[in-house]
Specification:
The chain is of the alpha+beta class. Helix content is 55%, strand content 17%. A 3-stranded antiparallel β-sheet has the order 1-4-5. A 3-stranded mixed β-sheet has the order 2-6-3, with no helix packed on it.
Length: 186
């Protein structure tokens, strides 16, 4: 504040104090704490206390946010680890099958070995919640299938139904993760 404004305010206070019977020595000065007014002091202490609480709570929340972000990052980074570890035996089986194909003359034995590996893989994926969307011969459903072509069919009972599956669709725990690509009869 400028000196002139402060002097004017002090004069106004002095005039009010003179009217109340206070001398200029006993009257409070601008910017000085008021002695004897414990209510103002207690309010200032309360404000200081609340500001301190707010700062501590804000810091605590910021630490919580950082910690949860770090935990989420770690979870995402290692989320597929369990699945990958479960697929490693299947990869080992494929390696052995490829080695056997190069040495074997018996095609039926190789076919049987590959079917065993395929069944093992499908079984593992089912344990993880994967299921195939059955669409062949059923009514076309846009909730789990994508029509890539329509084909004229002479039979009336095949109209609006899936007559061919170009690519299988899959669900993971009741959520479609890949829509089936199908041909629909019309």
């Amino acid at each position: 504040m400028s000196d002139n404004v402060q002097d004017t305010e002090q004069e106004n206070i002095n005039n009010e104090n003179d009217e109340k019977g206070m001398s200029s020595e006993t009257a409070p000065k601008i910017g000085e704490p008021v002695e004897g007014n414990t209510e103002i002091v207690s309010m200032e202490e309360k404000v200081d206390e609340l500001q301190d609480k707010y700062l501590r709570l804000s810091a605590e929340f910021d630490n919580y946010r950082k910690r949860t972000l770090k935990e989420r990052y770690e979870l995402i980074k290692t989320a597929g680890e369990d699945t990958i570890q479960g697929l490693l035996p299947v990869i080992d089986d494929f390696d052995r099958a490829i080695a056997a194909m190069n040495q074997s003359e018996d095609v039926s034995a190789v076919r049987e070995g590959i079917m065993l590996i395929y069944d093992k893989l499908i079984s593992y994926l089912k344990q993880k919640g994967l299921s195939e969307i059955e669409t062949l011969g059923k009514e076309f459903d846009t909730n789990n299938s994508e029509a890539i072509a329509k084909l004229a069919v002479p039979e009336k009972d095949k109209k609006g139904k899936v007559i061919d599956v170009v690519q299988k669709g899959y669900m993971l725990n009741d959520k479609v993760i890949r829509y089936a690509k199908v041909v629909v009869g019309e």
